């Protein structure tokens, strides 16, 4: 297997995103989040990270940024530059939750583990490989 097939990502997919699925909601519909890559060709990610982390750069360099601030930066950047949409997400009461920045902020504040899991998928360059996209297109 060549290095190119192992590491070349699809810049279009990095910006347009992939779907990450989390089982079914209370109505049996698939819960899906569309995420762009956190990095790579998604230049909005870098801009958003720079904007939201700027006031804390000195703490980051000194490795003294507290966990709450770090999670807040992660959440803001993810919502602004990585999260592109969702399908069939419900609130605590099982009611449909419309996709919006405010609702995403609420959801990820309530469920920080979901944010961290989605962030991991968005940072995983393998999910955006050109070879995977070609294989998917062939099926």
Taking pLDDT < 50 over at least 5 consecutive residues as the criterion, the unreliable ranges are none
Average pLDDT, all residues: 92
For the largest sheet, list the strands in their spatial order. 1-2-3
N- to C-terminal separation?
Answer: 20 Å
Work out the radius of gyration. Answer: 16 Å
Structural class: alpha+beta
Query: What string gives the helices and strands in order?
Result: HHEEHHHEHHH
Q: Count of DSSP helices?
A: 8
User: Percent of residues in beta strands?
Assistant: 5-15%
Number of strands: 3
State the major sheet: 3 strands, antiparallel
Helix content: 40-55%
The coarse overall form would be flat
Describe the structure.
This protein has 139 residues and is an alpha+beta fold. 53% of the residues lie in helices and 13% in strands. It has eight helices and three strands. It has a three-stranded antiparallel β-sheet. Helix 5 (67-82) runs antiparallel to helix 6. It starts with a helix and ends with a helix. 20% of the residues are buried. The mean pLDDT is 92.
What descriptive keywords fit this protein?
single chain, 139 residues, alpha+beta, 3-stranded antiparallel sheet, 8 helices, 13% strand, flat
């Amino acid at each position: 297997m060549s290095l190119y097939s192992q590491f070349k990502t699809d810049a279009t997919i990095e910006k347009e995103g992939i779907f990450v699925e989390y089982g079914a909601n209370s109505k049996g519909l698939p819960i899906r989040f569309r995420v762009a890559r956190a990095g790579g060709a998604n230049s909005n990610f870098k801009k958003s990270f720079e904007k939201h982390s700027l006031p804390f750069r000195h703490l980051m360099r000194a490795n003294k940024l507290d966990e709450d601030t770090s999670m807040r930066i992660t959440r803001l950047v993810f919502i602004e530059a990585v999260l592109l949409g969702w399908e069939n997400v419900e609130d605590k009461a099982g009611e449909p939750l419309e996709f919006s920045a405010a609702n995403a902020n609420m959801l990820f504040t309530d469920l920080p583990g979901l944010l961290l899991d989605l962030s991991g998928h968005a940072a995983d360059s393998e999910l955006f490989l050109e070879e995977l996209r070609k294989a998917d297109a062939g099926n």
